[in-house]
Design brief:
Blueprint (H helix, E strand, L loop, with lengths): L3 E5 L3 H12 L4 E5 L5 H16 L5 E4 L10 E4 L11 H22 L4 E4 L4 H12 L6 E3 L1 H17 L6 E2 L2 E2 L7 E2 L5 E2 L2 E2 L6 H12 L1 H9 L6 H15 L4 E10 L5 E12 L2 E5 L6 H18 L5
Parallel strand pairs: 1-2, 1-4, 2-3, 4-5, 5-6
Antiparallel strand pairs: 7-10, 8-9, 10-11, 12-13, 13-14
Length: 308
């Protein structure tokens, strides 16, 4: 039986994720969007590129959910971006409505599903997916930590002039202003960056990481990042389908780990064929733990405003 991924949302993130999945030959893809013709047109364009790129995976576009039946993974990218004049609560309410509706429809057609959440506010949308889908907690995973860590790796590489492949970083917490990059757990060929860079350079990288998405939005002036977010989501698809047991920072539902309970927060996890197979608890300093709990409190505040 061929593997199948449903990608909900045919915007820049969703379409680029779909393209990466078929090019890597990870699975067949069904690209779903409410806009008539958009998922169909993009999917047909991608399918035709297979003749040049050399992949044989199938990709189809749809405005419905029948074709998504029996998918193993669902990548959720659909939702609104925050617009001028729109409050954070406005965005939360609108995307709760969108995500709740599409997750309900996707899970109706695919029972044994793992959901990778990309839509913002990400940690709260994970909770929407958990409530609506009724899937076990290990089957709902937020993407953000991989993206934030990738940005931090890129900034370190730019500063030191070294390969990003030698760099490993750790970013915990919610996806937003309260994320918690951990410099002492961030290394270049095993050496902590705190031993390679002066404190002011480390602080600048931490700050730039936390504002990574906003920096790109300000540069683009219309739209937001999609190359790195789609790559991060597809790394998760790869780890799950190929049972890689990769240790990756993902938004996971905590039930007492790090002293946090009942909320999705970014932490290191082992990602394999059963979704989140283990949550890894790092030894944090009192200051790091306080920052993580502050980040979790921000997520709790958003979740408290959900209506589902």
């Amino acid at each position: 039986m061929r593997r199948k991924v449903t990608v909900l949302g045919a915007g820049n993130v969703g379409a680029t994720a779909a393209q990466r999945i078929v090019e890597k030959e990870l699975a067949d893809v069904v690209l779903v969007d409410v806009l008539d013709g958009i998922p169909q047109g993009k999917s047909l364009d991608m399918l035709q590129s297979g003749a040049v790129e050399g992949f044989d995976m199938k990709i189809v576009g749809s405005n419905g959910y029948e074709e998504t039946a029996d998918s193993q993974i669902c990548v959720v990218t659909a939702g609104l971006a925050r617009k001028p004049g729109m409050s954070r609560d406005d965005l939360l309410r609108k995307n709760e409505e969108i995500v709740g509706d599409i997750v309900a429809k996707a899970t109706r057609h695919s029972k044994d599903l793992t959901i990778i959440m990309v839509t913002n506010p990400l940690d709260a949308m994970c909770e929407v997916a958990r409530r609506v889908s009724k899937l076990p907690k290990n089957k709902i995973i937020g993407m953000a930590g991989i993206l934030d860590s990738a940005r931090m790796r890129a900034f370190i590489a730019m500063e030191l002039g070294v390969s990003m492949q030698n760099i490993h970083t750790t970013v915990l917490g919610g996806h937003g202003d309260t994320m918690v990059p951990l410099p002492r757990y961030s290394t270049v060929a095993g050496v902590p960056i705190t031993e390679l860079l002066p404190p002011e350079k480390v602080d600048a990288i931490v700050k730039r990481t936390a504002n990574g998405g906003a920096e790109i939005v300000n540069l683009l002036k219309a739209g937001s990042a999609y190359y790195a977010p789609s790559a991060a989501a597809v790394e998760m698809v790869d780890a799950i389908f190929n049972d890689k047991k990769k240790i990756l920072p993902c938004a996971a539902y905590l039930e007492g780990e790090y002293g946090i309970k009942g909320v999705f927060v970014g932490v290191p996890v082992v990602l394999g064929s059963n979704g989140i197979e283990k949550i890894i608890e790092l030894k944090l300093t009192p200051e790091e733990l306080a920052a993580l709990k502050k980040s979790a409190d921000s997520v709790h505040e958003l979740v408290g405003k959900l209506t589902c």
